[in-house]
Specification:
The structure holds 2 protein chains of 2 kinds. Helices cover 38% and strands 12% of the residues of chain A. Chain A is of the alpha+beta class. In chain A, helix 5 crosses helix 6. Chain A starts with 13 loop residues before the first helix and ends with a helix. Classes of the chains: A alpha+beta, B alpha+beta.
Chain lengths: 190, 332
């Protein structure tokens, strides 16, 4: 039986699944709740690209194959093999691998959360507060440079940037005041 | 831009988290590591199956840590002002620990999603009620995209493969009897490797020795504690090394990591506590200067409470290790 146990990956027994959408694994005894969908029963057919006839547009990466679509980002012709569905449009494999293009369509597979860095640095380094003399300008620079960088796919606002920037500006201001005070004191002493 | 709606279940770890989100035509699995997020998309038309298996999940989330911190704060207040009612705090702690243990052991699960080319665990679905709610929410969307499955699907799916075909998994054409052939027991990762036994013994014996030596002279107690801690650390590192070579089971490796982390946390907490106690005693005595002997780094081991905590901790870990040793051997 090819439906695997979610715990040990051993195929679940068919006679158990016949009685409903649950089965106990024969190997580890774990109770499994199974939801199976028609995609499991359909035979997946591999995409096949037709050869391009003379005068027909050909794929950018496969000159012998007929083009069936245009890449949403770079405008290259792509064959059935190369066309990758991304959201409502089509993309070519090279654009999908390009993080800048991929992020425009939310198609990227990973993102660095600069806003979390901007929030963490000024607060986290308070534990080693002398380092805030370095972190404060670094966070201001980070927040300004990456303000327009794509955020998390699932978190849309920039409050972390704003909060981190605010705290870093306060820390930087305190350092400037402190240094000014020390210099002024030294001068008055001299 | 795609808009996402959060689905039931969320794993909130100290470093790693996970959640699943719903879009118009796909599910988005988000795995976060504080400063970085990784995404996996599962289009409704591609999802072959979702399977949730009952499993023990002793996960300490940030939410439970917050509850623990709240308890510690309440306990500090009770202890300071209403010491007669301190039993309320201990009762609350016992109830909380029992509830957490029960939910982790009997109301938890491991959930996986399968497509033709991927098989992915959904870490956010580690509680049974979340998995159930998740399936109820998601199923209509997938059915809308793929249609309802016909009757007799258990027979129909027999000659198909759900999920990808990794090495070691049976191919769809393999006769079902082949699955019944027992694997070679010599290839099983064993819990009874020498380091595993040493690790378990050092935890159990160390725990008992520390508790029995509570009334012994402070010097003797200190050396017993130090000796067993060093032995436990060496054995835990040995278990980890053996684990990476595939000779020790995953459960024992996880326990070894837990012991290392807990020992570090205990050392730090007791050091800080002893430092505070020393400062308090010095302040009360009126003598503001500390002697070199008082400032000795291992001075905190003279406090019986530090040995008591270490002993109790070792005994609990030791019992867990014994339970892992007693478990039936399974293929890796």
């Amino acid at each position: 039986m090819p439906v695997p146990c979610a715990r040990c990956s051993t195929p679940l027994p068919k006679w158990e699944l016949r009685n409903g959408s649950a089965a106990d694994c024969a190997a580890c005894g774990t109770h499994n709740t199974v939801r199976l969908f028609p995609a499991a029963l359909s035979q997946t057919q591999a995409a096949q690209a037709d050869p391009a006839l003379e005068g027909e547009a050909a794929c950018f990466d496969h000159p012998g194959k007929r083009a069936v679509a245009v890449c949403l980002h770079c405008g290259r012709f792509v064959c059935a093999l190369c066309a990758v569905e991304v959201g409502s449009g089509l993309s070519c494999p090279s654009c999908l691998a390009n993080p800048v293009a991929a992020q425009k369509t939310d198609a990227g597979n990973a993102r660095m959360l600069y806003d979390t860095w901007a929030l963490f640095l000024p607060f986290g380094l308070l534990a080693i507060w002398p380092l805030t003399i370095l972190s404060a300008p670094a966070v201001v620079a980070l927040a300004l440079m990456k303000w327009r960088a794509p955020l998390s796919l699932i978190r849309r606002n920039r409050w972390r940037f704003a909060a981190g920037l605010g705290v870093a500006i306060v820390q930087g201001g305190l350092w400037v005041w402190f240094l000014w005070y020390v210099v002024a004191k030294a001068r008055s002493g001299a | 831009m795609t808009s996402y709606r959060k689905l039931p279940g969320r794993r909130r770890g100290f470093l790693f988290g996970s959640s699943v989100w719903l879009a118009d035509d796909h599910l988005l699995l988000v795995k976060s590591a504080r400063f970085r997020e990784e995404y996996r998309r599962f289009y409704f038309r591609d999802i072959q199956a979702i399977v949730a298996a009952d499993a023990m999940r002793f996960h300490l989330s940030t939410r439970s840590a917050a509850i623990g911190a709240l308890w510690a704060l309440s306990m500090a207040i009770l202890w300071g002002r209403f010491r007669n009612y301190a039993w309320l705090g201990w009762t609350a702690l016992a109830v909380l620990l029992l509830a957490w243990g029960y939910v982790s052991a009997y109301r938890s699960c491991r959930c996986r999603i399968y497509t033709a080319v991927s098989e992915e665990e959904l870490p956010s679905l580690y509680r049974a009620w979340n998995a159930s709610h998740f399936l109820q929410t998601v199923e209509p969307y997938i059915v809308q995209a793929q249609g309802a499955i016909q009757d007799e699907w258990a027979d129909a799916v027999e000659d198909r493969q759900v999920g990808p075909l990794p090495e070691g998994r049976l191919a769809t054409t393999t006769p079902a009897k082949a699955a019944a052939v027992p694997a070679d027991p010599s290839t099983f990762p064993s819990a009874r490797a020498p380091f595993a036994l040493l690790f378990t013994a050092s935890l159990c014996i160390g725990g008992m020795a520390n508790l029995l030596a509570l009334r012994a002279p402070a010097d003797a107690g200190r050396w017993i504690l130090m000796g067993f801690i060093l032995l436990q650390l060496a054995a835990a590192i040995g278990v980890l090394v053996e684990g990476y070579r595939g000779r020790v089971r995953h459960g024992l490796r996880a326990l070894a990591i837990l012991v290392l982390v807990a020992t570090g946390a205990w050392y730090y907490a007791v050091q800080v506590g002893a430092g505070m106690a020393l400062a308090y005693q010095t302040g009360n005595s009126g003598n503001r200067t500390l002697t070199t002997a008082q400032l000795e780094p291992l001075n905190f081991l003279y406090y019986p409470v530090s040995r008591e905590i270490a002993g109790g901790m070792n005994l609990i870990f030791g019992l867990a290790a014994v339970a892992l040793l007693a478990r039936r051997e399974r293929p890796a």
